[in-house]
Amino acid sequence: MASNQTQSALLFMPDISGFTQFVNDTEIIHSQHIIKELLEILIESNQLDLQVGEIEGDAIFFYKLCEKQDMKSLLEQVEKMFTRFHQHLKLYDHRRVCPCGACKTAVNLTLKVVAHFGEVTPMVVKEHKKLFGKDVILVHRLLKNNLNKREYFLFTDSLNNNADRENELPGWYSPEQGSEEYDLGKVPFSFSDLSPLYEKIPDLDLSGGKFVLKSSVSFSEERIIELPMEELFSIMIEQLQRGSWMKRKKDDNRATDEAIYSLGAKHTCLLTNNSTNITESVKIESDKIELVEMSENGIAGYRFLLKRIAPEQTLLSIEMRVKNNPILKLGFSVVFKSPMKKRVHRFFEELENFIETNSSNEKLSV
Fold first, then answer.
1. How far apart, in whole angstroms, are the C-alpha atoms of residue 269 and residue 293?
2. What is the distance in angstroms between the CA of the first residue and the CA of the last residue of the chain?
3. What angle do CA 322, 323, 328 make, to 5 degrees?
4. Dihedral sign (CA 241, 242, 243, 245)
5. pLDDT tens string 135-160
6. What is the DSSP string of 199-214?
7. Closest by Cα among 161, 52, 79, 179 to 117
8. Distance (Å, whole) CA 174 – CA 320
9. Is domain 7-200 given the CATH code 3.30.70.1230 in the classification?
10. Cα separation of 75 and 155, whole Å?
11. Spatial separation of the C-alpha atoms in residues 156 and 26, rounded to whole Å
């Protein structure tokens, strides 16, 4: 790409919208991770050999130095990005465990795409390639418009091509005319609602082993915890992800392999601190929450049940589950049952100590 030489280029910008301003640390971190994953999905969906000019917050500035792109290829690109974007959000919502505001509302995120064809001047600044020119400014301006639609593809008249055959264009494409007044002048454009593309989002593959269905209860223990149910659950999720109250070795990297704890996530077992479990299911209801985790081979696992018994009290029950195999169940009962009970008791003690310590720190900070 020659520097300081004006060239024709396709300018293409997908933009993610929908997150509010979060103030909670967990929500801020999780919202950033969700946006990062979605931006990666959009980049991976690039089939037009577009170049990434900039990642600008929740948007990506793509460009391609080329002759004018045909509308069929542009629409295929928009469709691929849109369907993969929303398929990822559907899967994320299905696997979601975290109750924070960012994770709960991620499924409501939206995608709009704007495109323009114009002239740009490439320039290298400290080994970084940048595009300059009024058309670069214009494509950014197009993201700010008065369209009363949540998701759309907007493109300027510079991309209209009379050679495009309507019967070759996808059925969801239904262009309307519009215009906006910017500091660059009045800009006419066309736009098409993307909501019909929801019908093209592939169904989720929800298959997977349910080891818990092939297990039975070996023993259970319960204790009243002096915390609201939702707060206790949030603490447990955070510890499943980070294991911060456990005496873990510094080089132990077996904790969750995902940035946000979710169904199917692998994590170091909180009770044993020396094995890897997989979260199989989570059920959240108004007065109870159930979380089931099983070992990778399905031999054993736990069912955590949280029940609200008062606004500031939760009954936490832990079931130790063992695979329905007579030999395994007998061996567990003889060899492991007693030490595992001790580990469950230790879990309760460490949990209560953690809560008490953090409560004391909060009081001191006040």
1. 9
2. 58
3. 85
4. negative
5. 999 999 999 999 999 999 999 999 98
6. GGSPPP------GGGG
7. 161
8. 57
9. yes
10. 11
11. 40
pTM for this structure?
A: 0.76
Residues 233-249 pLDDT 10s: 988 887 766 544 444 33
Alpha-carbon distance of 120 to 61, in angstroms, equals: 13
- What's the token pair of residue 291? 């979380």
Residues near 334 by beta carbon (within 8 Å), at least 6 away in sequence: none
> Which three-class secondary structure string do you get for 128-188?
EEEEECHHHHHHHHCCCCCCCCCCEEEEEHHHCCCCCCHHHCCCCCCCEEEEEEECCEEEE
Q: Looking only at Cα atoms, what is the longest distance across the chain? A: 82
CATH of 211-365, one of 3.30.420.40, 3.30.530.20, 1.10.40.60, 3.90.1740.10: 3.30.530.20
Range(s) for CATH 3.30.70.1230 in the chain?
7-200
For CATH 3.30.530.20, the residue range(s) in the chain are 211-365
Long-range contacts of 256-260 (CB under 8 A, 24+ apart): 259/33, 260/30, 260/33, 260/34, 260/98, 260/103
